[in-house]
Specification:
- By secondary structure, the protein is of the alpha/beta class.
- It is 41% helix and 18% strand.
- The protein has a 5-stranded mixed beta sheet with strand order 4-3-5-14-6. Strands 11-10-12-7-13 form a 5-stranded mixed beta sheet.
- The protein starts with a helix and ends with a helix.
């Protein structure tokens, strides 16, 4: 049964109080309209119209169901209008990391509207963003790449619990080297080894291998770097002081965590804003889209900005890590 067509017959008959006028209104033959009403009555298990009089009238069931039928038809009409409107405009799905700043994504969406493009943001892990470009399910995506080869670089650092007596988020300290996190003996006792949590955005082979080598060179205990589960859980452990979270500064600040930049720039995130090969992405990535998408993850073109105020220059260890 075509429910919408049958509901249209029911509502038109109720409005016109006549099968013949309702059929004329819908542009169908009266026998067809009558069959649709009877089919609907069988579906609902009761008569919708009293036909015992010369002039038909809705039954109690017909009066009860009428506003619901109108609502369904109104919603269907709005759905058709939205589909037609979307069909007239260009639509693009955009793959973005889960830790994007909402304000940055909003700027990209508004810019798309100004250029006649409807952008749909989809939060996806790095691998799915890349595969989405390949299979055409995404028009554009922020793709992870090595920072020394990337069009945009997002400085990474360690988020930790805020200072008890300091302002929310705390001041930015000098850049930290991984070797400074090594457990040290104090008054005869060895400090607990650090726990560094990785968000899903950093759980990619190229980055994890690079981080593992850097941690080994820094003398950090094996197993101190751990993949985090959901971002909310990782943040809870971080704010509770049980771990440090590797992330970009805007993400840490939004959630009230203290953030310290990493001195090793080879451990920063590299991003390229890419278009799907063929299809919607044939026009390439427009500047009005690339800039706000990069800004949403705290990324800037190489050479603009650094790991943070007070960051030391890249040392020999960082240069070796960059070479893999």
């Amino acid at each position: 049964m075509d429910l919408l067509a049958h509901l249209e017959a029911y509502v038109a008959t109720a409005d016109e109080v006549s099968f013949s006028r309702a059929a004329d209104r819908l542009g169908i033959a009266q026998p067809l309209l009558s069959r649709r009403v009877r089919t609907l009555e069988e579906h609902f298990g009761g008569a919708l119209f009293d036909r015992s009089r010369r002039r038909i009238a809705p039954t109690e069931l017909g009066v009860l169901l009428l506003p619901y039928a109108r609502d369904v038809l109104d919603r269907a009409q709005r759905l058709r209008q939205a589909a037609r409107s979307a069909g007239r405009s260009r639509m693009r799905a955009v793959g973005v990391p889960a830790d994007c700043a909402p304000a940055g994504l909003a700027r990209a969406i508004r810019a798309g509207t100004e250029h006649g493009i409807t952008l749909g943001m989809r939060e996806l892990p790095p691998g799915e963003r890349r595969s989405g470009l390949a299979d055409g399910s995404l028009g554009y995506a922020l793709v992870r790449t090595a920072p020394e080869q990337a069009g945009y670089v997002a400085p990474l650092g360690l988020a930790s619990a805020p200072e008890p007596d300091g302002p929310e988020g705390g001041p930015v300290r000098r850049a930290v080297h991984l070797e400074e996190l090594r457990p040290r003996r104090r008054t005869g006792e060895r400090t607990a080894p650090p726990v560094l949590l990785l968000l899903a955005e950093d759980q990619v082979d190229c980055f994890q291998d690079r981080l593992a080598r850097a941690a080994a060179r820094a003398g950090l205990p094996e197993g101190c770097v751990r993949p985090a589960g959901p971002a909310a859980t990782a943040l809870a452990e971080t704010l509770a002081g049980r771990a440090s979270l590797l992330c970009a500064e805007p993400f840490a600040r939004r959630h009230g965590a203290h953030w310290t930049p990493l001195a090793d720039r080879a451990l920063h995130r590299g991003y390229d804003v890419c278009a799907a090969p063929g299809g919607h992405g044939t026009e390439g990535v427009p500047d009005w889209l690339a800039a706000p998408l990069a800004a949403a993850v705290g990324a800037v073109p190489p050479g603009r900005g650094g790991p943070g105020p007070g960051a030391a220059a890249e040392d020999a260890t960082a240069r070796l890590a960059a070479r893999g």
